[in-house]
Amino acid sequence: GQQLNQSPQSMFIQEGEDVSMNCTSSSIFNTWLWYKQDPGEGPVLLIALYKAGELTSNGRLTAQFGITRKDSFLNISASIPSDVGIYFCAGQFLVGDDKIIFGKGTRLHILP
Amino acid sequence: DTEVTQTPKHLVMGMTNKKSLKCEQHMGHRAMYWYKQKAKKPPELMFVYSYEKLSINESVPSRFSPECPNSSLLNLHLHALQPEDSALYLCASSLQGANYGYTFGSGTRLTVV
Questions:
Q1: pLDDT of res. B99
Q2: Is the Cα torsion angle B83, B64, B68, B47 positive or negative in sign?
Q3: Smallest Cβ distance to A99: which of B6, B45, B97?
Q4: What is the structure's pLDDT at A35?
Q5: Which listed residue, A44, B23, B25, B49, has the most CB atoms within 10 A of its CB?
Q6: A40-69 per-position pLDDT tens digit
Q7: Is residue A90 within 8 angstroms of chain B, CB to CB?
């Protein structure tokens, strides 16, 4: 079946640092999605990417849809305490059931 | 309204109980989903409803029974659960056939004792 490899699994950074995480897949997706999940809450969509090579920003977040359509990265600039949480990449197929496949997540910790 | 609302937020049930989880959205989405999420793991797809019809069942045990009474509501009926079924149960919805991702609810934290 389809699998997404997300790395790193966890990150410990200082407030103000930039963060980068990425996902690779054995499958080609029509859409790449990045979600953030806070404890006890459902995932919240941060950025959606629809075209190979697309670079999209949402405030301090920037994500790119890889040229091969098999990878994506998410960057967070100048991290702040509320960035703590779990970030999931997800790939979505347009044809058929438009099922989302999730990566295993990157847990972001910010050191005091 | 841009939300998916799930009730209850927390549920503790015994292994012989019958309970139901509820999910509601008023965004006109015609696809609705149930996910199960264990601690420190990604959400795992359980069921997909498309236009109120069950389109995907990811080999979920029959002690979980989904129901979609109308385009805005999705239920998950629970019966004879096991302690290992304790998890966060997430509902999501999306525009059918549109690749805009899913909108998730906040989940129901289920504990089976």
A1: 66
A2: positive
A3: B45
A4: 96
A5: B23
A6: 899 999 999 999 999 999 999 999 999 999
A7: yes
Distance from CA of B18 to the nearest CA of A (A): 24
Q: What are phi and psi of B21, to 5 degrees?
A: -100, 145
Taking contacts as CB-CB distances below 8 angstroms, the residues of chain A near B6 are: 42
Answer yes or no: do B101 and A30 touch at CB < 8 A.
no
Q: How far is CA B12 from CA A85, B45, B92, B102, B112, in A?
A: 26, 22, 22, 27, 6
Shortest CB distance from A43 goes to which of B41, B97, B104? B104
**CA distance linking residue A31 with residue B61, whole number of Å:** 30
pLDDT on residue B108: 97
Cβ proximity of B73 and B82 under 8 Å? no
- Among residues A57, A84, A85, A94, the alpha carbon closest in space to that of A73 is found at A57
**What residues pair up with B87 in beta bridges, in sequence order?**
B110
**Strand B10-13 relative to strand B108-112: parallel, antiparallel, unpaired?**
parallel
Nearest to A77 by CA among A87, A55, A62: A62
Give the pLDDT confidence of B1-60 residue by residue, as tens digits.
679 999 999 999 999 999 999 999 999 999 999 999 999 899 999 999 999 999 888 899
